[in-house]
Structures are given as C-alpha cells and as structure tokens.
C-alpha cells in the first residue's frame, strides 16, 4: 500500500515540475456510464463528417483494450490561457489554444519525459502517451480522476482554473492510488447554452458536434452550409464562445509555457491583413501551429465564408 502511495506522490510531483496544471489518476476500467451516451451521440449523427469517431468503439470505452496490461490512467492538464489576445476587435478570430506551437508536440514531449522519469524511479513501467490523437475519452478520464467535472458545454471545468487547458493521458501497467471524481458545479447557469452562436449545445451536457463552429472551421472539408452564414461570430479557426462566457473561467491565469506564445505578428494582424493573407504569410505565421490542420485553402474558405456572411462584428 505504502509503495502505491509513494509512486503516486512521485508522479504528481514530477508532473508539476514538468509544468502540468494538475494530475489525477483513475483505475483503467470499462467506462460504464459513458458507453450508452457515446452510442446515442453517434447514433444521432452528432459527429457529422468526423467518421473516425465511429471507429474503435470498444477501445474508446476500455483502455485495457488499447494498452495491454494497463491498470491506471494518469490524466494531466496543461494550461494554454494566453496573457494577450488578438488586438483588432474586427479581425477574424482564432481559438486561443492555437496561438502558439501545436500542443501535440509540446505535450507529447512532456509525457515522454514523465514516463521516462517513472521508469527511472519506479522500475519497469509499460505504458503509452495520448494527446487527443487516439480513441481515448480524455474528458471522461479527467473527470473520473477528480480534475474537474464535464460542464453543460461538454468541456471539462475546474473550480480552480476554469477550462482553458489541454487534457492528456499516460495509460500505464502499474497500480497507483486513485482519485475520486468531484461534484458538478454548473448549477442553474446556462451561459454557454445561451451564448452559442449556432445553438450547437442542444441541451445541457449535449453538444451537436456537427453544428459547432470549431467543426465547421477545422474538421469539415466540404463547403460550410449556407444556413450558418452570418452565424460564425467571426471565428476563422475554432471557437471559444462557450468558454469565454463560462463564469468559472474568471479564474483562468496566463500560462507560462514559452512554446505557447504566439508568433510575434499573429496578435497584431488586422481584419485587412487576414483578408489579404498569402500562402507565404500563412506558412510563416503558422509554421508549427495547430492551424496548419486546416491548410491555407481551408483558412481562405473560412475567411471567404465570413466575408460573404457579413459576420456579427464586421464594419
């Protein structure tokens, strides 16, 4: 028992040392509560064109099918809340998480270092690192591990730090001390539901992914449906509306991860700069950014859609 306690403390201390906001641990087991919810969400086609969501259904719900011999899921949060945002209030907007270096690279490196530390300090530890790139229900695991609760906007929320953070996991084959979930603190608040420009939050705790602005501007490869013209609230990559209005985000503090600092030109670009952006400028500013996912052609499509729809805060 004492050994489990010692190992758990070691891991949590090192996670803090590596810059993670918090670390919670839960038993690698079947996600019983999430199974019917995920099934219904997929059945109602709320994933739109994100067909990868249909794959590996059993692995999404049971980490033991994903990582052989797994016993514990270590969930980690990494803050990305920026000290400054885009200066031109009329400029098309980019989600705060995409200001700096692509989080996949930043977090993967930290997870590798944490696993290496565990192997050095504990001995033989087998496991895999996951950053939003495999069939892992990261919000469910983070909630199980006591790092927050899943809010009405389906994001993980924390009383201490809000929701502007990334979630990642190490699934490992050793037993550790497990944390308890926390209670839901959304109460009667409906700020996120009321503010969603496309009414993607169809009911509390249910988001229709195929109506979400992030889906339209990042995931959707076809043309954005005309019915959403003028409803994208000037977002050209991602959307932060449901987080910006969440009362718990008044506790967000700027991150201290240098790699998440934006490209020097990014925040000062004007509406005109964005409308006239070239492939060269795009490649320079977003060289290591998550925005590369949408490619130059995708960003241009989004910008043109915003322009045609005369977004809410255009001149």
Characteristic key phrases:
disordered C terminus; cytoplasm; 2 domains; globular; 11 helices; two-stranded parallel sheet; alpha+beta; single chain; cobalamin; 4Fe-4S; tRNA processing; 315 residues; four-stranded antiparallel β-sheet
How would you characterize this protein structure?
The chain is α+β, with helices and mostly antiparallel strands and 315 residues long. The protein folds into two domains: 2-172, no CATH class; 191-239 and 262-308, no CATH class. The chain has eleven helices and ten strands. It has helices spanning 2-17, 34-43, 57-61, 103-121, 138-144, 191-195, 213-219, 241-244, 271-275, 279-285, 295-308, and strands at 22-27, 72-79, 93-94, 127-130, 149-150, 156-157, 165-172, 201-203, 206-207, 235-237. Strands 1-2-7-4 form a four-stranded antiparallel β-sheet, with helices on both faces. The chain has a two-stranded parallel sheet with strand order 3-10. It has a two-stranded antiparallel sheet with strand order 5-6. A hairpin with a 5-residue loop joins strand 5 (149-150) and strand 6 (156-157). The chain is globular and about 60 Å long. Mean pLDDT is 92; it is low at 311-315.
Number of helices: 11
Shape: globular
Sheet with the most strands: spatial strand order: 1-2-7-4
Radius of gyration based on Cα positions: 20 Å
The domain tally reads 2
Q: Give the ordered list of helices and strands.
A: HEHHEEHEHEEEHEEHEHHHH
Counting copies of identical and different chains, the oligomeric state is: single chain
Question: How large a portion of the residues is in β-strands, by DSSP E?
Answer: 5-15%
Structural class: alpha+beta
Q: What is the rounded distance between the termini?
A: 64 Å
Mean pLDDT: 92
Instruction: Summarize the biggest pleated sheet.
Output: 4 strands, antiparallel
What is the number of E strands? Answer: 10
The unreliable regions are 311-315
Question: Helicity level, as a percent range?
Answer: 25-40%
């Amino acid at each position: 028992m004492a050994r489990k306690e010692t190992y758990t403390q070691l891991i949590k201390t090192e996670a803090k040392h590596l810059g993670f906001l918090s670390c919670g641990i839960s038993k690698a087991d079947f996600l019983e509560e999430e199974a019917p919810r995920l099934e219904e969400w997929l059945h109602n086609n709320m994933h739109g064109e994100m067909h990868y969501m249909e794959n590996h259904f059993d692995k999404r719900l049971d980490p033991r099918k994903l990582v052989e011999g797994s016993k514990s899921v270590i969930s980690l949060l990494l803050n990305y809340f920026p000290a400054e945002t885009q200066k031109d209030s009329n400029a098309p907007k980019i989600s705060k998480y995409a200001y700096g270096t692509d989080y996949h690279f930043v977090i993967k490196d930290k997870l590798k270092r944490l696993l290496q530390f565990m192997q050095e300090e504990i001995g033989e530890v087998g496991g895999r690192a996951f950053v939003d790139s495999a069939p892992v229900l990261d919000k469910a695991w983070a909630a199980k591990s006591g790092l927050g609760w899943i809010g009405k906007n389906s994001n993980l929320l924390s009383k201490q730090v809000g929701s502007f953070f990334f979630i990642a996991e190490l699934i490992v084959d050793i037993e550790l001390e497990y944390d308890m979930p926390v209670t839901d603190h959304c109460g009667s608040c409906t700020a996120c539901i009321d503010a969603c420009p496309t009414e993607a939050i169809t009911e509390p705790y249910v988001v229709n992914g195929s109506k979400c602005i992030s889906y339209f501007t990042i995931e959707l490869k076809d043309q954005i449906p005309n019915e959403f013209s003028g409803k994208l609230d000037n977002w050209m990559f991602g959307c932060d509306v449901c987080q910006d209005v969440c009362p718990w985000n008044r506790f967000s503090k700027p991150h201290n991860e240098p790699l998440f600092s934006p490209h020097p030109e990014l925040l000062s670009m004007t509406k005109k700069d964005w409308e006239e952006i070239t492939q060269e400028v795009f490649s320079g500013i977003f060289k290591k950014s998550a925005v590369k996912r949408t490619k130059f052609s995708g960003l241009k499509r989004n910008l043109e859609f915003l322009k045609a729809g005369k977004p809410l805060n255009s001149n």
